[in-house]
């Protein structure tokens, strides 16, 4: 029997076929999970609809994670259609380009707020909104996407590194808070992958090359490998794991000199 037969999930963050969220969705769907997808703004709607055409029982809804009314409406609709929820994928991040490109010391107050609102606070807001539906399932699993720049200063990652540090701390506090409700919260810290969001990072191509040369596995990670790790963290295979940040980076993070 497929691992996730009869289970339901919601995926935030599909922009196109290169999105990490899409790789995760494919792994979950392969194991039988019924999925809802959200897209940010009309310009991404057609992409998501086209990708999901092969999943006829999926649900596709608009959601800008900074708009409380949209978050509410998404979970209302998922409640009406699915009646319960087992998994939530948070694969969303944004920082204004000038704040990523500037010297970190010049980060603007507004840019700082935007980056933290979209990339970190949204995990708290979405998890809270999912709770009544997790309760219908007797618990749930939440997964966020992060990067090594949360722990170490990575050239060019700047403001996003600070927002990811906040995201990772939020994973731990949510896990501690919601464990008694059988809701698990984890993150994957992925090695660099060439996606739409990654192109906003100055020097990203150099980052890919450096990573492939230095990582113990001597290569970059594949989207499918991130999807499979996500499948583990969102299934009962990881039932005793919560509050963790799991690296899927070919071992890059273990290297000193
Ligand atoms: P992506 O561009 O495909 O996905 C980013 C998503 O964030 C998009 O779907 C975008 O629509 C969404 N988003 C941005 N602002 C939003 C808002 N206000 N409301 C709703 N959605 C919003 O790029 P990706 O690389 O797949 O990024 C997914 C996650 O993975 C991000 O958290 C990113 O930081 C993280 N990550 C990426 C890499 C990498 O190298 N690509 C490495 C580690 C972690």
Order of helices and strands: EHEHEHEHHEHEHHE
Please report the number of helical segments. Answer: 8
The mean pLDDT is: 97
Contiguous runs where pLDDT drops below 50 for at least 5 residues: none
| CATH topology type | Rossmann fold
What CATH first level would be assigned? Answer: Alpha Beta
Ligand inventory: nicotinamide-adenine-dinucleotide
Describe it.
- The mean pLDDT is 97.
- The protein is globular and about 50 Å long.
- It is an alpha/beta fold and 257 residues long.
- It has a single domain (8-250), classed as 3-Layer(aba) Sandwich (Rossmann fold), CATH 3.40.50.
- The chain has helices at residues 20-30, 42-51, 68-82, 97-101, 109-137, 158-178, 204-214, 223-234; strands spanning 8-12, 34-39, 59-62, 87-90, 140-146, 183-190, 245-248.
- The protein contains eight helices and seven strands.
- Helix 5 (109-137) packs parallel to helix 6.
- Helix 2 links the parallel strand 2 (34-39) and strand 3 (59-62).
- It has a seven-stranded parallel beta sheet, sandwiched between helices.
- The protein binds nicotinamide-adenine-dinucleotide.
């Amino acid at each position: 029997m497929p691992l996730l037969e009869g289970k339901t999930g919601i995926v935030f963050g599909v922009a196109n076929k290169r999105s990490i969220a899409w790789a995760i969705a494919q792994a979950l769907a392969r194991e039988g999970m019924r999925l809802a997808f959200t897209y940010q703004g009309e310009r991404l709607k057609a992409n998501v609809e086209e990708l999901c055409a092969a999943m006829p029982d999926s649900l596709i809804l608009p959601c800008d994670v900074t708009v409380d009314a949209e978050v509410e409406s998404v979970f209302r609709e998922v409640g009406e259609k699915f009646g319960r929820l087992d998994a939530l994928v948070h694969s969303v991040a944004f920082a204004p380009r000038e704040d990523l490109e500037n010297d970190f010391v010049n980060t603007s107050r507004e840019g700082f707020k935007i980056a933290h609102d979209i990339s970190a606070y949204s995990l708290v807001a979405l998890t809270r909104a999912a709770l009544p539906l997790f309760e219908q399932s007797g618990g749930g699993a939440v997964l966020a996407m992060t990067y090594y720049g949360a722990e170490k200063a990575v050239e060019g990652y700047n403001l996003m590194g600070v927002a990811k540090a906040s995201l990772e701390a939020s994973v731990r506090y949510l896990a501690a808070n919601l464990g008694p409700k059988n809701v698990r919260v984890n993150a994957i810290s992925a090695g660099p992958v060439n996606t739409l969001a990654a192109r906003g990072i100055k020097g990203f191509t150099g980052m890919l090359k450096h990573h492939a040369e230095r990582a113990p596995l001597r290569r970059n990670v594949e989207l499918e490998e991130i999807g499979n790790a996500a499948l583990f963290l969102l299934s009962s295979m990881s039932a005793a794991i919560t509050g963790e940040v799991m690296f899927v980076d070919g071992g890059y993070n273990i290297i000193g000199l």
